Amino acid sequence: MKLKYFSLLFSIIGILVLYFLSRLSQTPIIAIHEMPDYAGKQVTIEGVVTDYQVTKHGSQIITIKDNNATATVFVEGFTALEYGDKIQATGEVQKYKDDWELVINDNRLVKILEKWQNISFPLWQLAENPTKYLELNVNVTGYIESTSNAYFYLVDIEKKHSLIVFYKLSKNITIYPGQKVSASGKFTFDEENFRYQLEICEEKHSITPLKQE
Amino acid sequence: MLPLLLVILFCVLGVLTGIATGLLPGLHVNNIALILLSLSGAIIATFSFLFEYGISEEFILVLICIYIISTSISHTFHDVIPSTFLGAPDGDMALSVLPAHSLLLEGKGYEAVALSAMGSYGAILFCFLLILPIRFIIGSPLFFYESLREIMLFVLIAISILMIGTEKSKIDDFGKKGIAPSIVGMLFATFVFFLSGIFGIVIFEVPVDSPIGLSSPVLFPALAGLFGTPTLLTSLMTKPVIPKQIIKPPVLNRKTKNSSTLSVMTGSLGGILVSIIPGITSATGTILAMNARGESSKRQTIITLSAVNTACAFFVVVVMFVILRSRSGATLAAMELMSVAEWTTLLMPANLAYLLIALLLGGTLSYFLTLKVGKIFARRFANVPYALIVKLTIALIVILVFLFTGIIGILILVVATLIGLLPVEWGVRRSHCMGILLIPIILYFL
Q1: Mean pLDDT, 10 residues at a time, over chain B (446 residues)?
Q2: pTM score
Q3: CB of B40 closer than 8 Å to CB of B341
Q4: What phi and psi values does residue B204 have, to the nearest 5 degrees?
Q5: Would an 8 Å CB–CB cutoff place A15 in contact with chain B?
Q6: Which CATH number fits domain A116-209: 2.40.50.140, 3.90.1150.10, 2.40.170.20, 2.60.120.260?
Q7: Looking at beta carbons, which residues of chain B come within 8 Å of A22?
């Protein structure tokens, strides 16, 4: 065969081979509730961190949640995470006791897609689906109303929703009613008073004044 | 005083490295920059003794950038030597003969090198004059780049159409009558363009991994295969009869002087355009410049071509400081190594000033060295074990590809070589292979 036809044929075949190679190495991105269908396979899942702990062997167990399903991710290695971070994890689906979990042997396969501080949303979004954000770090925007030394209420512009925010900040921040702020803290349920609340209690939590529109 | 001496020292080292890389056929300057970038850790370690003389680590990084930039500028001067003296086609087999090869076959190889050096150095001087004007045009207050970005999709599509539409080669395998060969030629150019594009889309999804833990640029095997190895392989198959060379500098009368100035200017502007628009290389810039320049002799073509190459290597550095984007391997490396402050005022950032020293000093040194080395080549190249050099270069490319991107990289290199052989074997322009970058970038802007 002449070289000109040879290279024509084999360049096309070569591209096809590379294409199949890339298909093989690509793991599908699936929703958490689909995990049982992928037992023993490599998959990528995405979700928000609801819990994480480090075992005594230095591995990390992360619980993540997307819409309404939760999954346990077992990582050999450590990734610096915080509650509420949106992460992507790639690993093998395995059955552990009665649950499905994602087993990852390289911590580089856990990627933080977005830090929780950067995922900010308006108050109504929280009000419409509070259980989705329960026990998570959230970053909510709204307007301040009726301040006191230990708490204030965050309301939206039509004053349709109102959320109590407790703050224990060492930093001196001046806040005044009517101010637009973004409050980042832990979203919890106060069982005694039967209400949701936002607690600004840790070093990384804060109140940031926003520009008025 | 010591910092200035170090700047000059690293610039000279860069120029010398550029001679070596420029003389190796088939190695592109972008690949050299990527290799140097991955070795930068070792270079810093080697020069860490300078800390004792009050030289900071940041300045050592600037020095490495100076080294890389002078290598790239020197490379654009010297790469004309192998492309003139090596790889000339057999007289009757050639589909198209490059201007430099045609001068070589007339015994005027040295003249081709001298013309190219003239074009390159002219581009350096012309670009130097244009730094401030271009800075005001693409940056504040005119912000030409911002406006260009909004219509970038159409600019890129227009360039692609222009590249394919100006393909003049004829393919007569499927009919020899009338305009059929021209149409087939253009269709084949389109085919090569899209094939390279699909190749580009595919390889970015292929996982490559360096077996020795170097950074793995997937474009390295792809570009080396598309533009490097095919020429090397075909040159192994040809045995041109090259006449004895006459060493005579180009004749310059008033008419050729004016004509050359025009070539340098259009070539430089083409090169500047390449340094601003993503996804096109100096090959595309040459097509643009040649179309703007109109019909010209083979001597003027050599000057234009060299001016495009050097102007591009020059202006990517300036453009990096104005739009903060890297458009070549050398600036990609520079941006990773040192802090690039945006040039917003009249006064240029200090790091740009250092790199300009490298560009001007490196360019001047390279001009004289190119003439010198070109003369040696013209006299002695009959004794050069040419086939051996080509084989060693191919081996070097294969080894580097393996070290950087592993066995999958070798596969990419092979496929890229097969694609790169298409234009050579069918006689269309190689620049259609730039679809590998253009099509993914067009898709990105869509």
Answers
A1: 89 93 78 76 81 82 91 92 79 63 88 94 96 90 86 92 85 76 90 95 82 73 88 81 83 87 94 89 84 81 92 93 87 85 87 92 96 90 79 90 89 94 87 90 87
A2: 0.73
A3: no
A4: -70, -15
A5: yes
A6: 2.40.50.140
A7: 202-203, 205-207
